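Subject: for your reference before the review

Hello V.,

The reviewers asked for a structural picture of the protein, and I figured it would be easier to keep everything in one thread rather than splitting it across files. Below is the amino acid sequence we used in the manuscript, unchanged from the supplementary table.
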Amino acid sequence: MHALALDELPSLTVAGRTDAGVHARGQVVHLDVPEQTWAAAEATALRRLIRLAAPDILVRSIEVAPPGFDARFSAIWRRYTYRVCDDAAAADPVRRRDTLSHRAGLDIDHMNHAAAACVGEHDFAAFCRSRPGASTVRELLRLDWQRPAPGIAVATVTADAFCHNMVRALVGALLAVGDGRRSAQWPAEVLAGRVRNPGVIVAPPHPLCLEQVGYPQDAELAARAQITRRIRGAGAPE
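And here is what came back from the structure prediction:
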């Protein structure tokens, strides 16, 4: 058995390429390895990967992927959460690394009213960092806020895919609605403009977490990947 040169190492494909500082609880990845390599490593692969990974990375499972599977392009939706504390007395120091401290109280009813207008298929150019040749049309399946505990507001955001900065820009716009700096109609007006709006403050990355990635039935994986590549191109952001 010989050590692999750098150009021989298998490339890793991830379901979601998150911004620096963003967490991922439900990331999915794939890589192609020779059958004989997997046959020799299968029994111990999970245990060895867990041992080798950095302290803030945990490999929960590993298995042979179905034919046609692509961790990124076969996905049909991705779900994120964004956690905010808007009451200093409710702040939990243990969770300071995954929670935004917001000085003003938030009206999540107003935020949910504003968010509803953004759900559906739209051109989200106003909430994205544009990249040459990449489409900014996305289907936003869910965007709403809930309070799991007093002083805590959590956004759930689900879409077929996301543009760069899209989730944090949407959150930033809704926080401005929630604390009264903007009207509930403002995010929809920004969206309709289809141009990056300097009034939208991109929310910090650390409270954002990729929670789950959804895939179609095995028989539909290859077709889904082909469609996604054709629509967005191999270099498009997620």
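For the response letter, the relevant points are probably these. DSSP finds six helices and nine strands in the chain. The mean pLDDT is 91.

Happy to draft the paragraph if you're swamped.

O.
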